[in-house]
């Protein structure tokens, strides 16, 4: 069977209302976990650097399971392989170069919006809560900040057991977002034409309502990733750049734990 047998237009299309719901439901789950459950756990004395990834992993795993079930069901309905339905289309070397270049541009724009994200944290109601880990605060440079300020309720140095927890969370983040929002959802928006990737990217950025101060940075990279998946019909490039960004975050955290 060819690895390019999935025609996006054959995927059962979602109405505008269903598209909105498909983003709103996981957004509501995330908001509940991070804005309602997390502060309760934090108040019980569980440090943010532990509570946040633990809650994130649980919610991400839930959405990932749902995504896999939906993808497998549709693969069976379309009589194609699961690999084809999750948009793991092979790309040529030149295609990889083009799409990674586009994503690199998107990443550069995203990094250039960091000052605006910092400004957003100063807006009443958008400040970063104490129960959120420091690496989600764009105003903090972890490499230039005293560890006691970064994590006042937990000494990071020497806590090597955090490695697997943080790695699990960041890897689940990649799998869940790529499989649910782009591999499953984007093809089901094909009837919207060229607007599909714009809507997908915009709603994906809005999905992060629990950390809306990062919207100026989330929007450009979300749009670029949706565009690349839309054009390539493959999640490989988006998966790769997502992996690079998350590994950079993980590397920074590991440095703080080791040094």
Brief summary of the model shown:
This protein has helices spanning 16-43, 48-78, 82-85, 93-112, 114-120, 147-150, 162-184, 195-207, 215-232, 236-258.
The number of helical segments is 10
Main sheet?
A: none
Q: State the distance separating the first and last CA atoms.
A: 50 Å
In helices, the fraction of residues equals 55-70%
Question: Which structural class do you get from the secondary structure elements?
Answer: mainly alpha
Radius of gyration: 19 Å
Number of strands: 0
Elements, N to C (H/E): HHHHHHHHHH
What proportion of the residues form beta strands (DSSP E)?
under 5%
The outline comes out as globular
Point out poorly predicted stretches: none
What brief labels describe this structure?
10 helices, globular, 0% strand, mainly alpha, 259 residues
Explain what this protein looks like in three dimensions.
With 259 residues, this protein is mainly α. It is 66% helix and 0% strand. It has helices at residues 16-43, 48-78, 82-85, 93-112, 114-120, 147-150, 162-184, 195-207, 215-232, 236-258. α8 (195-207) runs antiparallel to α9. The radius of gyration is 19 Å and the shape is globular. The N and C termini lie far apart (50 Å). The model has no long low-confidence stretch (mean pLDDT 94).
